[in-house]
Structures are given as structure tokens and as C-alpha cells.
Amino acid sequence: MRIIDSIPHPSMSISIFQMNDKFIVKFEAGPMEQAFKFFTEDVKSVDGVKKLINEAFIETVRVRFNEMFMQMKNAQV
Residue 61 sits in which domain range? Predict the structure, then answer.
């Protein structure tokens, strides 16, 4: 797996990897990460991936990170 691009964002790291017949988009925020796999035949290119990762997609990821953080915090009590 190799990193081929990234998407700038002020509060999380967004990296695009390519492996075999997939693009993998990894979001990282603090100790948490989320990854999404897209088949090359569906998105065709890195630009196709970037079109999918729009503001609405990123906002959903951010909300999920908040939920993950709260779950992690509650588990440590």
C-alpha cells in the first residue's frame, strides 16, 4: 500500500492510498482513525475519489469521530 495523495483539512489528516484494485481513504484525528475503501473500477482515479470526499462526507466523518471520542472517554471511567 502506498500513499498517493492527501486532502488538506484543518482538524484531521486525510490520506489517499492505493493498493491492488482499491483506493483507501484514511481519516485520522487524535488517537482515532477511520478508513474507507473504494474500488478502482467505481471511482476510476484519484480525482474521482476526491470528488466523493466532499464537505458533507467529511462532516459525517467528523461527527463519527466525536462519537468515537465520547465512547473512548466513557470506557476509561
Answer: 2-72
In angstroms, rounded to a whole number, what is the distance separating the alpha carbons of residues 48 and 29?
24
Cell numbers linked to 62 = 467528523
Residue 60: give its domain's CATH number.
Answer: 3.30.67
Outline where the chain has alpha helix (H): 40-43, 46-52, 55-75
**Is 18 a domain residue?**
yes
Q: Is the pLDDT of residue 66 over 80?
A: yes
Partners of residue 7 on adjacent β-strands: 14
Answer yes or no: is pLDDT of 77 > 70.
no
Number of structural domains (the chain) is 1
3-state SS, residue 31 = coil
